[in-house]
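Throughout our pipeline, every protein is held as a single compact record rather than as scattered files. Such a record has a labelled line for the sequence and another for the backbone structure tokens. The remainder of this section carries one protein's record, kept here as part of the documentation:
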Amino acid sequence: MHIRHDHHSITAAFLQSLKNAAEGECPLDTLKGCLLVTDLDGTLLNKEKRISEENKAAIRRFVDQGGLFTLATGRIASSALVFAGQLPVCAPAILYNGAMIYDFAANRVVWERTLPDRAAVVVERIAAAFPGIGIEIYSGGKPHFVKENEVTDKHRMLEGFAGGSAGDCRQVPKPWHKVLLAWNPESLDAVEKEVAGWEMEDITFVRSDAKYFEILPKDATKGHALERLVEMLGINPSASVAVGDHMNDMEMIRRAGTGIAVLNAEPALHEVAKRSCKHHDEHALADVIEWIERSWPDLG
């Protein structure tokens, strides 16, 4: 498993945020030292896959008061940038469900973990056991469609992914950041049950959506990446706030100073979250930020 660090870039990005603050773009004020990290789909985005004006206004207000804001998503950089470009993102983002920390301001990777070579064997084993499954391998900043079905077709259309099928997973260039398994929810339930009994020391599986089941490097969850980001930024871990809705947000919710589950979150997230907030169709991030403003600096 490959691990890459680039502390120079993260330091430069953080120093730039301080420079922006001094110039009045992000004035250091009452929320200095607070880091707010949010999932996209099912959390920040509404059912139309848009960021509400209420959420945008609240996030701008949070940043104007000195808070650091960023995203944590399973998406690749180009897909996440569509939304990051609409927001005052003040810190590097967590991508690939935790396999990468990416600095949009510098347009570079500052930390990443990649799958071991044996992931190809795992992919082949799953493909043989479940012929109808869709398989997307993420390498070189884009998905490679190894096996396609109705779910991958829809995913390709929604995200605007170009390119054809790779045909064979061993044709996909390495390193790989993640593998996305796509199928109808009932069939993926069977896949999840099957792999639960497999011994995997350097690979982990996570359900990121009813239709998506992902293969990730060991210890490359959003939670592990959040801990790394907090360390890089020099933020007190207790001052980190994370918001999410699905099982791929579990470790982030668990490891944040305050983990918050949106009202529409999976029941398991509500069990580990310290707080809950409004539904993602009811401006959940605005609700969270209003709570931070009332509670800071005592978020406990």
